[in-house]
Amino acid sequence: MKPVFAEIITIGDEILYGQITDTNSAWLGTELGLLGVQVKQISSIADKATDLIEALEEAMNRADLILITGGLGPTRDDITKKTLADYFKCELKLHEPSLADVTELFRSRGREMTEANRQQAFLPESCIPIRNIIGTAPGMWFEHKGKIIVSMPGVPYEMKRMMTDLVLPKIKESFEFPVIIHKVIQTIGIGESFLADQLSEWEDALPENIKLAYLPHLAGVRLRLTGIGSDADELEDQLLKELSTVSNLISKHIFAYGEVSLEETIGMLLLARNMTIATAESCTGGYVAHKLTSIPGSSMYYMGSILAYDNEVKIKQLQVKPETIEQHGAVSEQVVREMAENVRKIIGTDIGIATSGIAGPGGGSEDKPVGTLCIAYSDATKTISKKLFFNKDRELNIEFTTMSLLNLVRQSLP
Amino acid sequence: MKPVFAEIITIGDEILYGQITDTNSAWLGTELGLLGVQVKQISSIADKATDLIEALEEAMNRADLILITGGLGPTRDDITKKTLADYFKCELKLHEPSLADVTELFRSRGREMTEANRQQAFLPESCIPIRNIIGTAPGMWFEHKGKIIVSMPGVPYEMKRMMTDLVLPKIKESFEFPVIIHKVIQTIGIGESFLADQLSEWEDALPENIKLAYLPHLAGVRLRLTGIGSDADELEDQLLKELSTVSNLISKHIFAYGEVSLEETIGMLLLARNMTIATAESCTGGYVAHKLTSIPGSSMYYMGSILAYDNEVKIKQLQVKPETIEQHGAVSEQVVREMAENVRKIIGTDIGIATSGIAGPGGGSEDKPVGTLCIAYSDATKTISKKLFFNKDRELNIEFTTMSLLNLVRQSLP
Prior knowledge:
2 copies of one chain form a homodimer. Chain A is α/β, with parallel strands linked by helices. Chain A has 15 helices and 17 strands.
């Protein structure tokens, strides 16, 4: 079985000027890797026909599959479609289903379609059009000199949807791949080097066809086991055996297996217990609620929140005792405990959780520096609070507080 | 004056696998752009000598200046230095000042230096070494066939420090540059194609040395004017003239000039008016509050929120009349108006804003499909509500509702 090589070409002056960071390539690299495709090069080029042709020709020499993103918009600086039509020596022709998609998109938004949008449904005759149901630019699939060239929009969510629904399945059919199976273990509350210490003996003894990757993020580390083989069942068995060893080694840090987020995990735990939750947030400013409500169906267990940024709101709406704030300060375990207990009673849920902290950059003091963060969990039988220190920037402090609180929920649920 | 073209090559398997996003290139692109260097291509390649040589040769054909990052570490998969020595046909030789730097670095950290780290001070004879005072790998400056090739570490903070302190000044001396000035105009509430329609006549008449770029995002479009000239004052005048024409053509869609976000703009507008704001969110689940509180100093104007995901919370905490919900449904302009008016009174702020909608994927009906989104703004003298349709995925519906509401605040503030 020959390895399949791919190249990614992202188009846009704004990438070269550094005004946007190309995140499409990393996402595509991951998806292709999961399939067993090896990415050989990523190239970012200008919105210029000659540059695209040069990059394409170089890529055609090296790769079996070339993915292009960007340059498909309705304005004149979007050159991809015209350039590809020239390169593959064919005309642009109206593609009726794409026109129907664009028309429907504008109809559903109650907006009028412009001529420029109508032009987006004209596609090179030699391509297989790829539907875009959430944007105005269809994708294009070309086969040329034994290579596959796919052009997709540069807008990340349109590209991802198109890739997941239509392009990846078609790539899978077009090449012969070895059996590759990935297993993901999600951990939280332990750093990469500590995890590596606990796993090193096991990792050293892994069979040759199984590789381990550490994928650290803010509050945890994703572990990915990748096995390559020829028989799916055998490989699955082999991976499950390793998985169970890892599980035993680091069980208390694992919150999920597979691509499941911590907020999804919390949702499933609450549903399984038929319990409801409410939040009382100060320093996280709604981010805990946002995380919980980002999960479809969260209205089954998430009831609401009182967001008390101002101390007056803590006292009036959350009924925190003024003397608690006076004695211990708004950023204290005492205050955050009252917030969690009270929000549970006020909204009438099974669980109440709360945050109060100094996210920065201002507001710190000698006694309570920026990055002092308090969290609390409360249910019918107990209240648990924690004081954390995590002095990064505002955004990261908010994110870290949120993930730590969700982890506290996971650990504390009855 | 000839334009100076550059290319950037970033080295590392982890970039191609998508395990890290290449952020060095965007930073380098910005720095080079500010200097007047045009980046022609960014290429990311594997830790492989043949791939580096191929990428370098292609870049040498197109560019005057080639910046390489990565592959300078002490491990065997770091191939950059050896490959460049081979390519420039010279030997590695101990560079005493670099050895002194590395030795000092380890001494200051109280750690022992390994042989692999000592090897990092061996550099190709034909290069001008570039000091690295915060890491173990020195940079290298080569001049070859009239081109300049610079190799730097891949660790972002080491690369940035080296670039800022040593490489950029040296690039400035090495070429003659035109003056390049960028101006950014931030718009919201109008799509790219509609904007293009309104600007086409003006765009067609732009002088040759000024280019316009459309940089669309979810709820708006950034416009960037780039001018190239020889005299900074003249070019600035020329750009300001064009800027004022654009401003007149699309004034009501512009919320800021320069790199300012909508939530920052709202913050500045509120501070200028000495006004406070509170939020009442349903479908956005805390995201509006999160956006507003992501701005440092937002506690000056943001007081709090009642997040009423459940209808009971809308009635009990937000005092929405049960009959309004019964008659019009929770997702209605009537309910969202009451939410905005009431939260303003309950929290005691100048402004109250509210959301209610069907973010999906569940919860839609014939009458109110997924993507039906209501927003409202209320102050002492008026309440304004809007019903929007925007059928994307849950995350985007939430984001779109939030940005639309912030735009409504911008338009409605007294």
